[in-house]
Amino acid sequence: MSAHHLKLNLDKTELLFLPGKDCPTLDLTINIGPSVVSPTQTARNLGVILDNNLSFTANIAATTRCYRYTLYNIRRIRPQLTQKATQVLVQALVTSRLDYCNSLLAGLPACAIRPLQLIQNAAARLVFNLPKCSHTTPLLRSLHWLPVTARIHFKTLVLAYHAANGSGPSYIQDMVKPYTRSTCTPLCISQTARCTLAARGTQVPISRNTLKTHLFRLHFER
């Protein structure tokens, strides 16, 4: 920062220590001039709350709390809105924001993702102006909304695909290993497998819409 003539804002500086497996507890502090920065359990970066266990529990809790309040405000004016207007409002303020940095949640257990799914379920009920006890699977199918887990899967595959084709961030491209397709590989493969092969360097035609359609069928038409 000194080399670029930048000044560090100590009031907004946080130290987050991510221990490795079987790593002993360390009492870390950083001295920056007269100030001492001590470790914290959570730190916010670009709107995402990171915790020292990378469980994203704090981030999911903050997200659900914010969107629950948003849905509450929309519900107050729902009698004055048409179903279409409600859908546009919910998609703009809630469901689209559920996708923000959701690839970070890949690999988390279903119980950790469940609070976000409950928010999406509440959003679907609000669009159709139905009570809390209403079954949401047909509502999500009608709205053509992928469940939260599928949306995370979709975002992760798209990032991997762009990295394999040279249009993704360099730090992700460096993690992609070339893959040579075997002659015995079946020609009939699923869309998810196509995107996975593409992420490994195999040239297989794929599109975002095709992948989304495949995931939609996988979750709603089995």
What is the secondary structure topology, with strand pairs?
Layout: E1 30-32, E2 35-37, E3 42-45, E4 48-51, H1 57-77, H2 83-98, H3 110-128, H4 137-143, H5 148-164, H6 170-173, H7 191-199, H8 208-220
Antiparallel strand pairs: 1-2, 3-4
How would you concisely characterize the structure shown here?
The protein folds into three domains: 10-49, no CATH class; 56-145, no CATH class; 152-220, no CATH class.
Largest sheet: 2 strands, antiparallel
**Major β-sheet strand ordering:** 1-2
Helices and strands, in order, run as: EEEEHHHHHHHH
- Helix segment count? 8
* Inertia-based shape: globular
How large a portion of the residues is in β-strands, by DSSP E? 5-15%
Structural class comes to: mainly alpha
Distance between the termini: 54 Å
Q: What does the average pLDDT come to?
A: 83
The tally of beta strands, per DSSP, is 4
Radius of gyration: 22 Å
**Percentage of helical residues?**
40-55%
Question: Which runs of at least 5 residues are low in confidence (pLDDT < 50)?
Answer: 186-191, 197-203
What's the number of structural domains? 3
Organism: Champsocephalus gunnari
Protein name: Reverse transcriptase
Q: What does this protein structure show overall?
A:
This protein is mostly helical and 222 residues long. The protein has 3 domains: 10-49, no CATH class; 56-145, no CATH class; 152-220, no CATH class. The chain is built from 8 helices and 4 strands. The strands form 2 sheets. The chain has a two-stranded antiparallel ribbon with strand order 1-2. It has a two-stranded antiparallel sheet with strand order 3-4. A hairpin with a 2-residue loop joins β3 and β4 (48-51). It is globular and about 60 Å long. The termini are far apart. The model is unreliable at 186-191 and 197-203 (pLDDT under 50). This is Reverse transcriptase.
